[in-house]
Each structure stands twice: as structure tokens, then as C-alpha cells.
Amino acid sequence: MADLENTLYLEVPAGRVVIELRPDLAPNHVAQIKRLVREGFYDGIPFHRVIDGFMVQTGCPRGDGTGGSGTKLKAEFSREKHVRGVCSMARAADPNSADSQFFIMLANSPHLDNQYTVWGNTVSGMEFIDAIKKGSAARNGSVSDPDKIVSFKVAADVEAA
Fold this sequence. Notes:
- Helix content is 15%, strand content 24%.
- It is globular.
- It starts with 6 loop residues before the first strand and ends with a helix.
- Strands 3-4-6-5-7-2-1-8 form an 8-stranded antiparallel β-sheet.
- It has helices at residues 27-39, 126-130, 155-160, and strands at 7-12, 15-21, 49-51, 55-58, 86-89, 102-105, 118-124, 151-154.
- By secondary structure, the protein is an alpha+beta fold.
């Protein structure tokens, strides 16, 4: 049985994505993601940067990659690999600058290993992540008229309702 308190339901235009949280790897990042999810922070936020064969990025309330929730986190790097389906925090040049933006890997990207905080793994629905509108390679994956998060919920809150 899944740990519903550490499972997220990410509704995207194509369907439901189920993400297993990894508090064993990144307890502070998992706590922040769950807090923001429960506040409804992510609902309606666009996938502003999507690079085919690499990753999809979201979590910026401004929709352009420059915003966040206002709470930066200390890096929680681990030996976990950046493989297809892994959820990891986006950040600026400062390793301790992750906030609310995150990305889901579309493909294995070992060059990211040990440099970004892995906080979860997609356990089902990767075909719906694959269906997210891709951005322009010439514009670093920037997406015009991007797909948006329909809703983001902690499974325990949904199943208890």
C-alpha cells in the first residue's frame, strides 16, 4: 500500500501523474513541496520550460522562471540519479536557492547528478508528462501558450475526502 501522506497527485491536461515523495533523500524539500501543494500554490501554474528529451519545468508563479514562493531551501543533494521520471528542484547558480520550481526528467541526465535536489519519483502517468507541450530549443525550452498544472494534491487529502 502506498504511503498516501508521501504521494502526490499531479493533474496535467492529459491525465493524472502519481509522484512518490522521497523524504529519506530531501526531508526539507518534501516538507516545502507538500506545504505549497496543500496551499494550492501550484494549481494553474504553467510548465514554462519544456525541453524535448530532457525535462519539463514548472513551479514559477510568474510563468517565466523568475519567481517562487519566497522560501529558499538549503540544498539536499544525494546520490540519487537524474533518470526518467525523477522529480528534482530547479535552482539558480547558488546551490541553496531552490524554492518552488521543480522539474520532471523526460530522460536520463547524469550531468545533473549531485547538483540538484531529488525529492520524488513518478510512479505512474509518465505518458501524460510526455504529452506536455514542448518549448522552443532556440529559446532554452521556453513555451509559448504552455500547458498548466490542473491541480496538485497530497494523496492522503484526496483519499480522506
